[in-house]
Structure prediction request, 218 residues.
Amino acid sequence: MHAIQQRFAGKADFLSIYIREAHPTDEWQMDSNVKEGVCYPQPTKLEERLAIARDFVAREKWQIPLLVDDMENKVDFVYAGWPERMYVVETDGRIAYKGETGPFGFHPEEVEGWLEKKFPDVPKPQASKESLER
Amino acid sequence: MSKRVWILGSVAVVLTAAAVFVQTQIGFSNLIGILRYDTRREGDLKVGDPAPSVLLHEIENGAPTRILERPPDRPVILVFGSFT
Prediction:
């Protein structure tokens, strides 16, 4: 995600929205989260949600501006964002792209493709040495 | 062998195969999670709809803030998600 954001810096703005946890310890906890030490109960207060969001930003070195949904999950409800989803909003204020829900329908490369069509002047990323050797 | 034994045997084979499939593909804990907690929704928004302006909170201090109050100067990519 950061690579796409950096590639289209100055052309498009990215905004992440922190919503209710997908796999908290008191609901549907995943083994992978236990292994990685990402273990939080579902927040019941805004301050708890803010604290987890701050942990996320610090631990993942998250560079995309992040705002947090309220405890009534209004934004999640309106945008059906859970557990993860992407949208593109055009300059006319309308939705130009609506991704499927994650994890299986979460495809940042689709957004990258949308941006490539919108901004064909943005150079493609250079192929890595590994991909050239294949 | 009676017809009843054949039926029971077939049912046992199908149930065993289903159990093996579930455990190897997604795991029983995930199956329970899907059944109990999976709240994925398509939602009502469609491409071409006005993007709703929504009230959110600043991560630093929880102050209320609103996004998309007016059409943006550049396309905006919204990324929804959580830590877990």
In short: The CA atoms of residues 30 and 37 of chain B lie 10 Å apart. Chain B touches chain A through 48 residues (CB under 8 Å). The longest strand of chain B covers residues 76-81. The helical segments of chain B are 3-25, 28-37.
